[in-house]
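Supplementary notes (optional reading)

For those who missed the lab, this is the record we used. Protein: GntR family transcriptional regulator. Length: 258 residues.
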Amino acid sequence: MSTTTDGSRGTVRPGVAAAVPPAREPKHEILRRSLLDLVEASAPHDMLPSERELMQRYDVSRVTVRRAVERLSQEGRIYRVQGSGTFVADRDTISKSLRLTSFSEDIRARRMTPAGRMILMERVPADVVNARDLFVEPGAPLVHLERLRTADGEPMCLENVWLPESLVPGLLDHGEPTSLYHWLERAGAAPESAEQTVRATVVDAAQAALLKVPPQFPALHVERVTRDARGRAVERAVSLYRADRYDFRFTITRERHT
């Protein structure tokens, strides 16, 4: 026998687990979805309501508003201008933030479908640059992948990735991977941080044909070395992004001297 909350006696049948109420969704996630509807109904670069207005409109705390807004900013759906306000991001531009995210995560955050085509998948000996950046001996076996990445079927990025084969044994025998980060997580080498360099460039004729843009079209050349929680270099990537579809957005602050 058991006692109910009103003091009455009830029976719990053996072998039948008590029902567990579903976990309540965090308020900031509920607010994020509401704000996303507002964003999608607005034009690019429209200003969103202030924090105070959002608190009053949705009857939530300032902390809840800030967490929801921060999440949308990380997803590239909005951007903030210090001293001016928060604005709707251009839907045609995929904004990268300072968070370490994969191409697929960036595209899904914009409610687009990521896909791609494998151009090359091979085992190669580490050259001088890859040996230096991945902290392996020159000539050590690496897995090299070259992929054309797309969003809703449109070419967005050419990506070359090198990984120590010791971290992803069997990858070449498995066929085209759906997620390199998943393979690294399975190996206990989940990506945690990265050093990244971005510079302006233009595409050559072969790159232009793959990306479906004219030769000499502006692009962003991005080099990244990714590390796991132990500081091991687990990936080196060189990517070429169409400059008309990608930008890199982050917040910087000025250090004040007394």
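If you only remember one thing from this example: The chain is about 25% helix and 35% strand.
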